[in-house]
Fold this sequence. Notes:
There is one protein chain. The chain is of the alpha/beta class. The protein is 37% helix and 21% strand. Strands 14-15-16-13-12-17-18 form a seven-stranded mixed sheet, with helices on both faces. Strands 9-8-7-10-11-19 form a six-stranded mixed sheet, sandwiched between helices. A three-stranded antiparallel sheet has the order 5-6-20, with no helix packed on it. Strand 12, helix 9 and strand 13 (292-298) form a beta-alpha-beta unit. The longest helix is centred in the first third of the chain and has 21 residues, at 102-122. The chain starts with 12 loop residues before the first strand and ends with a strand. Adenosine-5'-diphosphate is lined by residues 153-156, 180, 182-183, 213-214, 217, 233-234, 237.
Amino acid sequence: xxxxxxxxxxxxxxxxxxxxxxxxxxxxxxxxxxxxxxxxxxxxxxxxxxxxxxxxxxxxxxxxxxxxxxxxxxxxxxxxxxxxxxxxxxxxxxxxxxxxxxxxxxxxxxxxxxxxxxxxxxxxxxxxxxxxxxxxxxxxxxxxxxxxxxxxxxxxxxxxxxxxxxxxxxxxxxxxxxxxxxxxxxxxxxxxxxxxxxxxxxxxxxxxxxxxxxxxxxxxxxxxxxxxxxxxxxxxxxxxxxxxxxxxxxxxxxxxxxxxxxxxxxxxxxxxxxxxxxxxxxxxxxxxxxxxxxxxxxxxxxxxxxxxxxxxxxxxxxxxxxxxxxxxxxxxxxxxxxxxxxxxxxxxxxxxxxxxxxxxxxxxxxxxxxxxxxxxxxxxxxxxxxxxxxxxxxxxxxxxxxxxxxxxxxxxxxxxxxxxxxxxxxxxxxxxxxxxxxxxxxxxxxxxxxxxxxxxxxxxxxxxxxxxxxxxxxxxxxxxxxxxx
Length: 485
Ligand code: ADP
């Protein structure tokens, strides 16, 4: 079954514990974004296969929800170990289809495993309440139950760890799932099927279907058997899924787009700010939802910051993620490159200055030069739209209140970053920013222990932390009467 390219590569859907093709036999290709080479094919499935997967998940729910928390915790622990035992093969597969440097891919696999371990631990702590009763002859219990079948739709930028953030809490809570991975990166999701088989997850508890995104998404949203949709992806698709899920009043968790501001005050530690800027911008070639979209730098430190930052950016080496000399991979596809070009053209036309980069890389294909643009202005596309590429626009500002207003002047509200050594200012600005997550003098903020998520058009719900399990359980109130007197 396994391919010579990689032991985890599967070219079939994973439904009810079986590896199966699309009913029609149709497939779609998966290409390496670094060189366009075809890595393999996956089934081009639609409504019927999704229905089969939902049915399997629904049947499996009866047994899975009755397992003990300890049994589910032990299985998740085994899953964590299986992921880490196979970190190198999983990371290689991820780099092949996604493009990110192998060191980042290893990090993503380890991060996914860490979420699974966290939720293995959380599985045993899904507590209810015994509430003091207002009635002498009645007792009040509040219990937590799994929501049921979960439909999980995942993106291509973190095709492995985003699934960990969804399957971890779903399995811990006692839910079953149907997964639809991104079209560009289905192999990293199908690899979870191999791992789940290896650790003995009962058939049908997790099902993975690849193919027609709209057909699969519609069936997941409208099926009465699916009780929750969890999605990571663009705000546009997220809004559409929320609207579709309304027809059956499903729970929804949405991790959507961001437009992260990175604010550097004159009193910031410049070394730290430059290191943070670099880390928040160029990880995964700028293709993360918490990547900085807009750098706001105060006048007094502006020129020094731009110079130091551009020097660091110029030192990046582009190439295939499998090449140990490269620390910056390609963009996911040609559409992403065109979108990146559009941002740069728009900025140039409106007076932006390209300090470094600003064009397609000489490697060709999906490679774009890491770019720093100074003189960014509010009328440029960066202000409103998510870049999702390797461009760092730098705005100059003067006053604290002015920058809070600029940072908040967006529909998004996922992550933001503030660099200052003034404690009072750090607190004022943190409280003024309408974002779900704030990094103060820190650019790397995600971890399984924390509630990851956004406000406004950036999403609903939180992944990770003590809060992460809440989206996967229902609260049941039980009133017990008639036994005291
Ligand atoms: P991006 O713009 O970053 O590719 P998308 O929001 O388009 O992000 O994709 C995120 C996920 O949503 C992917 O799995 C993609 O296949 C899926 N998707 C895209 N269109 C639809 C749709 N109409 N219904 C359901 N899922 C969709």
